Amino acid sequence: MLTSDGHGWIEFSRFLAPSVVADHRTAPVNALGYLRVLIAVDHLDETLERLHPCGSQLRGEVVQCHNTYRMCYIR
Hints:
The protein is of the alpha+beta class. It has one helix and two strands; from the N terminus they run H-E-E.
């Protein structure tokens, strides 16, 4: 779904497993429900450095996808 300005987009994902976790704060990244927002940034490493002092935590590791982009989950 593209945003009205044509510069952003929203991606919805749905997982069929694992089972529902009552407390979303302890849920794995593939928990049922809509617990994530995807945000594209130009400089991932710099963004992660800026977010860390604000309390964000990297979940897992930064991965390279299809030699095109890098992604990670943060909480």
